[in-house]
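*** Backbone structure tokens ***
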Amino acid sequence: MDDRRPRHVFISCGEASGDRYGAALCAALRARDPQVRISALAGPRTAAAGAVLVRDSADLAVMGFAEVLGQARRLLRARREAAAHLRGGEVDVFVPIDFPGFNSHLAGRARAAGVPVFWLVAPQVWAWGGWRTAGFRRRIDRLGTVLPFEAEYFAQRGFDVFPMGHPLMEDYGGGWDFEGAVAAREQVIDARDQMLTLALLPGSRRQELAQLLPVLRIAARAAASMLPGRTLRPVVSCAPGLDADEVAKAFAGAQ
């Protein structure tokens, strides 16, 4: 690396949660080194935090075999663009954030180009593909974990692990009194308040919304029928980058 030029970090994330973490990473990097150069395949939050977008990731968050096939050309084009950026962008470190189906290939390209890979938010291979850990390990230099047990799990399998803690905990000032929250909620329920709030969490991908919102509406109706004399107020989570009006319309139109 030429010490006369700013360090160049390339971030790749493909979902709303990854975009949020990418933005937080940008802020932390700039606090340490205001001259750092940050490029990204990411969304609006990471861009607003100061990264130059190589490509907007908004249309890359797809799930399901048919959906992936339908977007295959777009996904492959985005992957080629990101790989070309890794080869020719004078990147000093590549930071994939989650999104393993897309980012694992790029991590391999980065290693082949001699670019160190610091992967944030470890893929949950412990749940759906423990046999994949060896191939995953060959693609990265360091792994940031978010769940308490993950550090030991991956360290036992030869990873250089950096236990980060879950980024969402920052919403609660660095910690959250889980037992206190549960006890408070039970106290509210025991008081038999007339109004209860039901949180519905459909996810951030458009396919998830289309498939889950109708089911969640039915579930909300069923829950309300089990609480005679009480009012149940469903509240639908809306991830950054989604149109709240569209989510409300889809929920209201579900049968």
In short: The longest strand covers residues 37-42. The first helix runs from residue 16 to 32.
